[in-house]
Input
Amino acid sequence: MLELAYLLNQRRVKMEQKTLSRREFLRMATVAAAGTVGAALAGCAQPAPGVVEKVVKETVVVEVEGTPEVVEVTKIVEVAPPLETVEIVYLGADESGAGAVAFDVYTDQVIPPFIEENPHIKVTFEPAVGDWDDMIIADAAAGTAPDIFPHWAEFGRRLMEEGQMLALQDYIPQEDLDDFLEQQLIACRVGPSLFALPRYISTVALTYNKDYLDEAGIEYPDETWDWTDLENALQQLGEMGTSERGTLFPYYVNPWYQPVFVWANGGEWMNKEYMGTKMLIDQPEAMEALRWQYDMIYRHGYAPTGEEVEGLGWWEAWQSGRFAFYEGHSWQVSEFVSVCDWEWDYAPLPKNPNTGERGGIVFNDSQSVYAGTKHPVEAVEFLRYVSSPEVEKIMMTSVHGWQPCRRSLDEEWITESAGAKAGKNVKAFIDILPTVRQDPYFMNDAQVKEIYEPIWDQIWVTGDIGLDEGVQRIVTSVNEYLDSVA
Amino acid sequence: MGAIDSRLFKRNSIAKPHRQRSTLARREEWIGWLFVSPWVIGFVLLTAGPMLASLGLSFTEATLLSPPRFVGLDNYRMLFSTDEVKSLFWKSLSNTSYYVFLSVPLTVALGFAMALLLNQDLKGQGIFRTIYYLPSIMPPVAVATVWTWVFNKQYGLLNAALAWVGIEGPAWLTSVEWSKPALVISSVWTAGGGMLVFLAGLQGVPTDLYDAAKVDGAGVWSRFRHVTLPMVSSTIFFVLVTSIITSFQVFVIVFVFSGAVGGSQAGSLGGPANSTLMYVVYLYRLAFKQFRMGFASALAWIYFVILMVFTALVFKSSSAWVYYEGELLGGGDGK
Output
């Protein structure tokens, strides 16, 4: 018994010590060798890792006994390996105010076709919510900005100038750019380098309330109207009284988009088409246009003062239903269609009676590839896709209702956009395009705004300073500053 | 065994207890550090570290998106310029001081008054306490939005109330003269926070002091002046200091009010015409709208110094009017 126990214990010890007998060692070695040979043989039958083989049939001409004959041969060729899957992040914005429904357009309609065509590119969508423009700055500083992101006006321009956007001119041929408005592309360039593609067009048309005009017996505006016709209509509307919506006004003067009228009157806002280095709004033609707008508020009372529309931002003034005429932007069309429950429509902005010209404005609403992207080729591919006519058409006909920046889609905007389907004269936004100019942007624009905005507030919002005095102070201060940094 | 060397004994008898105490003390010290380490790490990484970084940035021209460029004291020199094209330091400091020196006494006094009222033996004291405290914990943006409606010239509650007594209310938000008073008035919303602290302080006043005062013939006002005020002076001091620090950082309500100013966009933050441009708002504009991180950092550090000096002055003054129960009972200086 003792011996048996000893032997059993020895076996246990041996097992614990993992000792092998010669026979066990040879058995295992044989199995391992066989496995290795088998794997090697199997490997020989497969193409090298990462290489894909394709069977192709070719017709070749061969000589058979001196006679050329066409024969079909089958052969195996090696083709390029499947691309490595990459992930890019796309930040998409919603200006329609429709919320989740608007973001669904990106995830349900825009992104899936691209993924189907490019299975190796995984696109992660991030909705731009809250103070997303501030977040992009922080993300860019941290090196984690989305691969493709939208931007606008000075915020986008500044990121561009700080080298946070990938230069695109080597990726995008010139012929691709011919379909865009040059006035929009100006804001997408720094010198000869292209850093963005336009996202949509935002331009301005005259919006009018048919109910108020009908009540006053005024004919609806059309392309023949000039500033005098508009003034006559406003005079005819006179004091409109109040409604359950509040005090009514014939017109709304937007103090932030005055360049339209300055240009129409033959004046200039600054000395260059973009990145101005001198402000010119004190020149006679510019002052005349500004005076016309100023008098609407403070002389004739056609438009409200700042305190009369306190709490009402310019972007929501029309939706309040308190105005007979208003300068509406094309990005607002969808919202107006869904919100405004009275009869209204669009007409081209009235022409200047002296020059016969209509002023038009576009803005820098673009999208770019982040300079720090790890996948520039794929990111640019996606950027080109979301700037394509196909995607612009999706955005035009969805809740976003964007006016497409591609000129080839003008007809679709007139017939298929949300505004068109609601019976609105959205053609007014197309008719203005030949005369549009880029929203003025100065050198060191943020500091220029620091100087002129407080004085501009005192002219247009509080009425504490007269137009002449205010403009003089602005132009003197701004030009002194621009000279100091030149 | 021979005679024991007494020196050896002495050395051992001294060394042995010392080693034990220092080991235990060291162990306890390490455990203490271990317990506070999460806070210390957080403080170093999230507060002290960024503070030092911003101090360094204040001597540079920096956008955070490109490498900073050393400019020495240029930012500080420009900061103190009276040319408003170069710097709105004095303007923003003046606006902030206006707000702080009016809103702090108002909210502290109001909080104290509410606490005095609630310190009565009333039915439903808890309900009233909740009602008065609730506004101070509501989301600031929602509160600010409500106030823009209250201050609306045509439809606001405030002008409607003034109209009942025959006064035509001003354009609170679109007027350079009235925009700051509007901010001060809206600050009373936060009086509930101080009220709660005052209530705790009042309820800590020993009732036998009041009894003794009554016995001595002290009336209501005398009891308030000679018993209540001294006994809650430390609470008043605490609320005063915290209110000053909070008021100096006013931002959200200005951000929301500026959006309500006659259709202005965020570019006129602090409007109209910079009349509500508070110091922190100016700092935000410089850092995130103009990308002038270096200049904004200099502004932040000057503000830190101003706040420290101001707080130090308040602390220094406290020896004249703040009484601590420990001192009265003979502790501390035994005065």
Residues 1-8, 13-20 of chain A have pLDDT under 50 and may be disordered. The first strand of chain A starts at residue 52 and ends at 64. Chain A is about 40% helix and 20% strand.
